[in-house]
TrEMBL record:
<dbReference type="InterPro" id="IPR032710">
    <property type="entry name" value="NTF2-like_dom_sf"/>
</dbReference>
<dbReference type="Pfam" id="PF14534">
    <property type="entry name" value="DUF4440"/>
</dbReference>
<protein>
    <submittedName>
        <fullName>Nuclear transport factor 2 family protein</fullName>
    </submittedName>
</protein>
<feature type="domain" description="DUF4440">
    <location>
        <begin position="6"/>
        <end position="111"/>
    </location>
</feature>
<dbReference type="InterPro" id="IPR027843">
    <property type="entry name" value="DUF4440"/>
</dbReference>
């Protein structure tokens, strides 16, 4: 996998873990949208606002890309996001299968879309992923 894409994944996960809306602001495209684990869709501003006034707090946040495929100035990353978090005081811990659509523009790699699907059981580290 391209080192730039690996680095993007590290920066994105660290910004999410810290709740760093300013860093995320630089990592998301202007027309970014996210599909949450229950099917809701939120835009860029709403995604960033989750961190205002400490609504979303991560005690831990881990992103392990399973596969990244590059297509010119676009890439698709599939991985597992594991988190211990609260949102508005409610427990939102979980493990999610995640698909990210990344695009390369004048600002470098940026996240255009993310889709999360809950995983009933966390994947075992010693068990290989299947495509």
């Amino acid at each position: 996998m391209d080192e730039e894409l690996r680095e993007f994944g590290r920066r994105w996960a660290e910004a999410e873990r810290r709740g760093d809306a300013a860093a995320l602001d630089r990592l998301l495209t202007e027309d970014f949208h996210g599909v949450g684990p229950r099917g809701f869709v939120i835009g860029r501003d709403e995604w960033l606002e989750r961190y205002s006034d400490d609504w979303l707090i991560h005690d831990s946040f881990d992103w392990r890309p399973v596969q990244v495929r590059r297509y010119g100035d676009a890439a698709v990353a599939n991985g597992v996001q594991s988190q211990q978090s609260t949102y508005d005081g409610r427990d939102v811990d979980g493990h999610f299968r995640v698909t990210q659509l990344l695009v390369h523009d004048a600002y470098g790699w940026r996240l255009a879309c993310i889709h999360l699907s809950p995983i009933a059981e966390p994947p075992r580290v010693d068990q290989p992923e299947h495509a």
